[in-house]
Amino acid sequence: MKFFSICLREIKKRGFRFFVQKISKVMEYSLILLCFPLIFICLCMVRFVKGWKHIRFGYFVGSRIGHFVADAGIAFSEKKISNYLDFYFIEKPISNYQWYKIVSRSFHVYPFIKYFYKFDKMIGKNSIHTFEPAIAKSGSRDIHGALCASSESMYFLKKEETFCRNWFYSKGWKGERFICLTIRDKAYLQETFNDIDYSYHDYRDSDIKSYRKSVEELNQLGYWVIRMGKIAKEKLDYNHEKFIDYPFLKDKSDLLDIWLMANSHFTITSGTGIDSVSDVYLRPMIYINFLPLPTLNSWRFTITAPKFLRWKQNKRYLTLNECLEHCYHHSGKYEEAEIMVEDLSSEDISEAVLELESRLRGEWNETHRQKELQKQFWKKLKKWENFSKYHGWLHPEARVGSHFLNKVGSEFFN
């Protein structure tokens, strides 16, 4: 009776969902104890055969699409040049079931590997038979350039390709190049993780209206533009036969989420998570309104056009040294330091977008001054004390937007 009284108190205090989770944990650990002898024998055999084949156990975090995609993409590239036999489990909940399918057919994925992983950790904290995903080692950053070093990417089935192309044809597409646009706002995290306060991420949000000029210009150049995302705060007030406001469609799907981002001519992003799909499929990318600047993507063909940072007191732009000193991942930190976070204007965004489009066509004419400003940026960034935490192998086409550097000028490097 005492046990049931405790259970009822827990339900009243924390809710039935919490109680179910607790019971599930108890059942899970009971199962582990029952299976312990078998798992222990298997782990002993794993150690015995190490001289012939090195077996390891790992996992992917499935709840956040950015980390889920990036970690699997990096692991897929690395396994092509390694001699390990790796087995995985995927931590739930799952953010995108199509990506779950792709990962499951590209790796040895089995739910019970979770118990091998945990037991091996218990046997030896620094075991050579368990390993962590990229999120734990590098924040899911490809600092060793594994993605570019590999010539293969995870594949789509023929029926998946056919479904996606037929969907696109139904919208009027005739095989033209298309560009994905994924802009961060509050809507996705608020609806998906409504029990967690993500307001500290507000400095990363963007206003979709400021991207309209760029969408119009790309349409005029003949490109399709697809504004991506499962959930978005508001529609873009714009109509064109080659523009799709995908978050508001009834026929969107997890498969289309992945296929479109994997096949774009290039991707415009403010750093959203789903953009990792374009990253692992080696699509050129533009990071717009990105912060903090020192943590820019340096392993992909990218242009980064960050938000402007100004001192509240005198409205002066922060120098690069000051940006390195105030490299914050929390909105409140900028407030405390009395730093204003200023979004890019429509013109600023357009300049960055057209720069990448022009570079991909081989028609960008870079001035001597622009080259020098770019060199100064990377020279100073490499001296940053945290450089090796965020960067390693540098893609030769990773750069800061020329328009941004022109606007902040040589004073940025004082």
Keywords for this structure?
12 strands, 7-stranded parallel beta sheet, alpha/beta, 414 residues
Q: What is the molecular shape? A: globular
What radius of gyration results from the CA coordinates? 24 Å
Read across the widest sheet, the strand sequence of neighbours is 6-5-4-7-8-9-12
**Fraction in beta strands:** 5-15%
State the distance separating the first and last CA atoms: 72 Å
SSE blueprint and pairings:
Elements: H1 2-14, H2 16-48, E1 54-61, H3 65-79, E2 84-91, H4 97-106, E3 108-109, H5 113-123, H6 134-138, H7 146-149, H8 158-170, E4 178-182, H9 187-192, H10 212-220, E5 224-227, E6 243-245, H11 254-263, E7 266-269, H12 275-280, E8 285-290, E9 302-306, E10 308-311, H13 320-325, H14 331-336, E11 339-342, H15 346-360, H16 368-381, H17 387-390, E12 398-400, H18 402-408
Parallel strand pairs: 1-2, 2-3, 4-5, 4-7, 5-6, 7-8, 8-9, 9-12
Antiparallel strand pairs: 10-11
Helix pairs in contact: 1-2, 2-5, 10-15
Protein described:
- With 414 residues, this protein is α/β, with parallel strands linked by helices.
- It folds into two domains: 130 residues, no CATH class; 256 residues, no CATH class.
- The chain contains 18 helices and twelve strands.
- The chain has a seven-stranded parallel β-sheet with strand order 6-5-4-7-8-9-12, sandwiched between helices.
- α1 crosses α2, α2 crosses α5 and α10 packs parallel to α15.
- It is globular and about 65 Å long.
- The termini are far apart.
- Keywords: Membrane, Transmembrane, Transmembrane helix.
- This is Glycosyltransferase, TIGR04372 family.
